[in-house]
Amino acid sequence: MKQLTIALAKGRLMDETIKLFNSKGIAIDYEENSRKLIFESKDGTLKFLIVRAQDVATYVEGNGADLGVAGLDVLTENKKDVFELMDLNIGKCTVVVAGKTRNYPDTPTQLKVATKFVNITDEFFAKKGMTIEIIKLYGSIELAGVIGLADCIVDIVSTGQTLKENGLYIIEKITESSAFLVANHVSYYTKNEEITKLIELLK
Ligand code: PRP
Q: What spacing in Å lies between the alpha carbon of 2 and ligand 1's midpoint?
């Protein structure tokens, strides 16, 4: 059997992915406080790479990993050339527009929208026929809505806790998201037996 390399997104999604693999009988040697960026399944059939969520599909597309686990939100935003093999039904969240009120605020100028999802935001407001100004941020997006750097934000909501604790409301839902197993085009054919076996296990 050939070893499969899988890129995982650091953080909450990685914990859920490891839990999912463990629950399907794939034991993984992973120490939570370790700074190692590579680790393996106990039987050595899988090698995991820890990367940033936004970089998972880049590793997979560029042949750095055979497979990856990435949220549909990030995959849609980054539009990489990878196969979306299966919905893992973890990392569920919703991409929303949120603000200080439940409706879009009236603004004398273009609506300012803070987000890390520039493409999703662009496309969503273009479809609504609204011209907006995007403020690109890399994290803590809610803060921009709270302090008024932007009129509203586009971000993911999972439990809703972050919006609640910062006094923000959902104005509109854009799309639902969950984590997908994605594959490199070449690996999908050259390691098809191994990938098919993994998909069967994860079902
Ligand atoms: C994400 C997202 C929200 C939060 C939503 O942030 O950007 O801030 O989770 O989750 P909740 O609805 O369960 O509160 P993340 O923790 O990934 O950090 P970030 O601010 O760096 O994007």
A: 36
Cβ(140) to ligand 1 under 6 A? Answer: yes
State whether the beta carbon of 155 lies less than 6 angstroms from ligand 1.
Answer: yes
Per the CB < 8 A criterion, the answer to whether 7 and 67 are in contact is yes
Q: Spell out the CATH class of 93-176.
A: alpha beta
* C-alpha torsion angle, residues 41, 23, 75, 68 (rounded to 10): 10
Query: What is the rounded average pLDDT of the residues 25-53?
Result: 92
Q: What is the pTM of this model?
A: 0.93
Separation of alpha carbons 149 and 179, rounded Å: 30
Top-level CATH class of 4-91+178-202? alpha beta
pLDDT in tens, 72-110: 999 999 999 999 999 999 999 999 999 999 999 998 889
Tell whether ligand 1 has an atom less than 6 A from the beta carbon of residue 142: yes
